[in-house]
């Protein structure tokens, strides 16, 4: 922190503290994160039981097919105050989970894999019995900072409504493919609290993928090869696009590029920006022809039409009638460069990666990591996601009542929790139950057959 | 398999019973055969096979294209796996494979290397089989797939054609008599990763000319499991029983061919923080120099970059405390001290075996670096492979490579001889030959230091 910043803050504290009455103080609190509010959040609002039911995958019932050691082999890790990172917390019941969270009040809860053994006892085992992850959701992490070279509105940790559509595109492309191509059904999208989204694929098959298979799915989604040290970022090979890329292009990328990002990011407005695109054109004569057109700004400056759109149409016209296929393909390469999802590959490739649990509160923004409905993801607005302070104000307005379950219902967290249940948790648990039933019956049948011999 | 001395003294080394695989030319190595092996053959067969695997490994790290690899493997196999008695060719193949299993079962790193090379070899040899032999092998593996029915094929014909054209298989566009296999996508990870198949509702549609991937994946997973079992057997019984006979051979076989791993700085002891800037200029290879400069410039590196540079510095002789101080100095400028201690310090201690599994990690070799795939915002990898030509030229001239040497280096790069390009750079900068060639960034460093020290001593 700079010295000036520290000065300002201590000034504020001096002015604010002694004068405000308690009620007004809460209302006047800045939308910042305050660790002492977390306790209230965890005791009144955090959906402990939903987290527990999700993580149990049906193993919490009375069914004889249940694996009672299941939840206890799952790693939860906490980030506590003063940056203390506590790994390998495990819980055997809903009450243990809830009490631990309430007591420790972690700034962040991360969910790890399910291990072969209870990781809390990891030191008790020796020799061949090393702690190995055996089961883990297939996860994806998309972070806006990876798009810094294609967005001009913000950079780093900031996001705004001009660049958020990049995340919308990512959700649409990945979600469609996970469902249609890979056949997954239980997919949860979560706002990461600041500048990105997380995706949890929870189908049984997804949870049992090996590292190599996870890497294969992640690579299927990857079109970026190279970086600022090499010249081009997206190279689309072959005569035609793979059906997945072709579908992504025609159904999502093209539209978002042409109707949103092109103008909101002013992708072709200034020399510095259009040069970056001209660099991507393999045919030098076309690049110079366009450059000549665009440098003479007056001719095309008819006030009605957006300059980005005018220039994009000119570019497309020249490229698309070219005889070399590599040059025609360049239009698509530009669109992919500016819109196609950029995944943090390492997160998806390894089972032992930790990922923040939904409904955590981001310590920098104070915003809750709420689920996003992939079917209506274009309506999701990160700037209106409830913050911790806002939720406590809402609770405050309603008046605290310790005797009522589900206080969240009265706050703006209500819709988020309802969405979590209806679109994700309930269908998931239904499948888990069916799978458990059928695998149990199969086992039963098998042992019967054995007996009859 | 029994190992006997030439004069037929029997030993108890026998891992399991079973018969030689059915396929006459391409064994699947499902179980160790009952064969008697002379001690001399035990070693010499293994060395011959190792030459093949090592050749494949070199070819891959030079980024050779599939058709070049095809030629290379053919050549390697022909020159090394011959036997004057043609009836012994198959035995040599099987025996050498099982001996190398013993050699390469003993650590994760060794297993991984052996697994990749044997799989590459298998894949190559499978492709050279007749269609009939291929089908026989598929049957033997009991593949979990069915040929796509006519009706289903008709409904997907367009998509399948789209995929074939997208990967340049124009000559094999799907026709009515084409055979496609429908398999769960997770059975063909390599085809999925390369978007080489059409995937729908969890199933990949694999063309007949792609079944090699399917078969190789199964081969690989069976071998992977077998190596773990062999390792267990090795550790619990074989090593002890054979300590005067096979164990020395097995141990020598692996170390003599992998080269030093540079996990412990041996020759020059520790280096200190204040010398790093100077050392980076004089003795870092380009890949490390680039990471180092980027770190100084941006005060940040992504994970893979931190691993590549951090382990190199460890091998060079930076101790864990200096290493922490080094990274802290840079990162704290960007992310702040607090965040550094929280997010990054653990990782650095981890590299030195101070946290987590407490494994002492080894610095990356050229081969590993060349095969990495840097993405947006990454600076790791091998500049000779991963930089565009312009960037590479600029970086080399900043290092002080003159224009004549530059053309030689670029020539090697164009031939995808990345390690040779690095060797030429070394020679140009040190005005001295480097006959062994560069195989490891830490070797570059120690060779460079050796030369510089010698120069200093002779001028003093």
Automatic annotation (TrEMBL), chain A:
Its EC number is 2.7.7.-. Keywords: DNA replication, DNA-directed RNA polymerase, Metal-binding, Nucleotidyltransferase, Primosome, Transcription, Transferase. It comes from the Eukaryota. The keyword Transcription applies. It is an enzyme of class 2 (transferase). Signal peptide: none annotated. NCBIfam families: primase_sml. Belongs to the eukaryotic-type primase small subunit family. This is DNA primase. It comes from Stylosanthes scabra.
UniProtKB/TrEMBL annotation, chain B:
Residues 277-445 form the DNA primase large subunit C-terminal domain. It comes from Stylosanthes scabra. This is DNA primase large subunit. It comes from the Eukaryota. CDD domains: PriL_PriS_Eukaryotic. Keywords: 4Fe-4S, DNA replication, DNA-binding, Iron, Iron-sulfur, Metal-binding, Primosome. Pfam families: DNA_primase_lrg, DNA_primase_lrg_N. Binds 1 [4Fe-4S] cluster. Gene3D superfamilies: 1.20.930.80. The keyword ATP-binding does not apply. Its cofactor is [4Fe-4S] cluster. Residues 1-23 are annotated as: Disordered. Residues 9-23 have a biased composition (Low complexity).
